[in-house]
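Service request form, structural biology core

Requester: graduate student, group of Dr. S.
Request type: structure prediction, single chain
Budget code: on file
Notes: please return the result as structure tokens.

Sequence provided:
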Amino acid sequence: MAIISRDLGHSDYSATLQAMQQFTANRAAETPDEIWLTEHDAVYTLGLNRKNVRMPYNGIPVILVDRGGKITYHGLGQVIIYLLLDLKRRNLNVRQLVNIIEASIIGLLAHHKVNAVAKNGAPGVYVDEKKIASLGLRLKNNCCYHGLSLNVDMDLSPFETIDPCGYVGLEVTQAKDLGITCSPQEIGGQLLQTLLKNFNK
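Core staff response, request fulfilled:
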């Protein structure tokens, strides 16, 4: 079954989270999978692993969410892609899903002459030990939601007040600082197409 892709443009984080939750709760066996592309205003999201989290104190809202992982930051200039997929239908387990997401990001960056890697035990994508993309997923009844964020052309300073994804001292980077001149919208569209291709193999 084909995956439906939606470009939400600039969307409110809380409203989009609620829409993902409702979509997943109301799914039936015949519901097509969807992938949503968006950007959010400045917000920290705090996942289910909330122990020993260094909390920010800079006035940016912190929202408790139902994905895995700890704390991360979203802001304009960062590509967000939400994956609303029936894993059973696609014969995928969570590890395979993560592998496809990471490989898609790595492949996109390689197309732009940037060498990126994944790390065992630390989901996401890294360039020279700095994190450029984060993953956070939730699974219900073999259907996933939430997804990935890719830093493209944004203010990275809000990351400095947290331990990104719970890793003390972890630095972050973005496509612009690696010589990629494409806009977030262009990179988002390219990554969306790469994901659709890889999920339909």
